[in-house]
Amino acid sequence: PGDVFIHTGDFTSGSAPNALGVRREIVAFNAWLDTLPHRHKFFVAGNHETDGGIKLKELASLVPNAKHLLDERAVIDLDADGQGEVTLYGSPWQPQFRGFGTYIPPGPELLAKWGKIPGDVDILITHTPPHGKFDVNEAGRAVGDASLARVVERIKPALHVFGHIHPGRAPDPLGGEHVAMRLQHARREAPGHKSSQTTTYVNVASKPGSGQLFPPRVPVVVDVEIPV
């Protein structure tokens, strides 16, 4: 089943009638997480989770079965000998949809949020996609965030996972896809050196977009090779 579980947000329906309904769906999500065998579990909030006035800071207590990353990093070790250290960073912000607790319009405030992403991150978790990466909506427009794209291109995480734009689900809209990648920890050994590492981008949105007839989506599995 894997070592690490990551959810990039919108684990509630987005159609609950009020905050109580959203809260019930969040509690149900937490109960489901408890059934998963992964050693490490992480999530960022989606705009759906703030529907009805739910506050982002409430989610850590509502979902204790996974680590809520709110502009926060986490370091995990995937090997017993301490050689498999991986740094993750998660952020929930999105500039596309007003009226949600995750909304920040394009501009200096949003860029400041992306500026908190550490340069040594291996796995970046955001709700919104970067511009031009699996971000095409129902209308055929690429709506990912351009400022996030520039930051990701500069820091070059090994893996960037996101969701939010549900029709952009990739690599496979029906799910079940495996993605293979390799971490390059050597970039940490030369401060200031611009890494030659390429970033693997994956839209793991778990809900179909409006008007789509996809069946319920199964997880994307990312196989990560960690150099010794």
Q: Would you give an account of this structure?
A:
The longest helix is centred in the first third of the chain and has 15 residues. The radius of gyration is 17 Å and the shape is globular. It starts with a strand and ends with a strand. The protein has a five-stranded mixed sheet with strand order 4-5-6-7-9, with no helix packed on it. A three-stranded parallel sheet has the order 1-2-3, with no helix packed on it. The chain has 228 residues and is α/β, with parallel strands linked by helices. It has four helices and ten strands.
- Rounded Rg: 17 Å
Order of helices and strands: EHEHEEEHEHEEEE
Give average pLDDT, whole number.
Answer: 83
Structure annotation, total helices: 4
Give the N-to-C terminal Cα separation: 23 Å
Low-confidence stretches: 185-194, 211-216
The main sheet orders its strands as 4-5-6-7-9
Biggest beta-sheet profile: 5 strands, mixed
Number of strands: 10
Structural class comes to: alpha/beta
The outline comes out as globular
Strand content: 15-25%
- Percent helix: 10-25%
List keywords for this structure.
228 residues; alpha/beta; five-stranded mixed β-sheet; three-stranded parallel β-sheet; 4 helices; globular
